[in-house]
Amino acid sequence: MFDFSFGELALLAVIALLVVGPEKLPGLARSAGRWYGSVRRMMGNARTEMEQQLLIDELRQEAQNLRDQTAASILDPEMAEDSRAGPPPANVENQESLPGFLPPAAPEEHPFH
């Protein structure tokens, strides 16, 4: 966040020691640490909230696009046929043409019947 060298930090500590005094320096360091922690938490919370808001806006835009496409396909059926993904449905009468079709198994004869 800040670009301080060790020498600059040491100089800052000596100045704080001279200005505040050795008795109050630990309390001042604790207060500074708490302040720094609270600022970091606030920044983290703000960043998380902004990311969530951006995601919500993106999802709303996608939902609006889907609504527009659905409304357009209802009003213009040819457009719906053009935008449909995949091949047209297979002929139900010709079940062998369906992918994954398994013919019905022949009934088994039981030896005890």
Helical fraction? 55-70%
- Which band does the percent of strand residues land in? under 5%
Kindly report the average pLDDT value.
Answer: 79
User: What is the CA-based Rg, rounded?
Assistant: 36 Å
Order of helices and strands: HHH
Shape: elongated
Question: Which spans of ≥5 residues are poorly predicted at pLDDT below 50?
Answer: none
Number of helices: 3
Note the gap between the termini: 85 Å
User: How many strands, which pairing sense, and closed or not: the largest β-sheet?
Assistant: none
* Helix/strand/pairing category: mainly alpha
Strand count: 0
TL;DR of this structure?
This protein has a domain at 7-75.
Structure keywords:
mainly alpha, single chain, 3 helices, 65% helix, 113 residues
Furnish the topology, listing elements before pairings:
Blueprint: H1 6-20, H2 25-75, H3 77-83
Polypeptide structure, described:
The chain is mainly alpha-helical and 113 residues long. The protein has a domain of 69 residues. It contains three helices and no strands. Helix 2 packs across helix 3. The longest helix is centred in the middle third of the chain and has 51 residues. The mean pLDDT is 79.
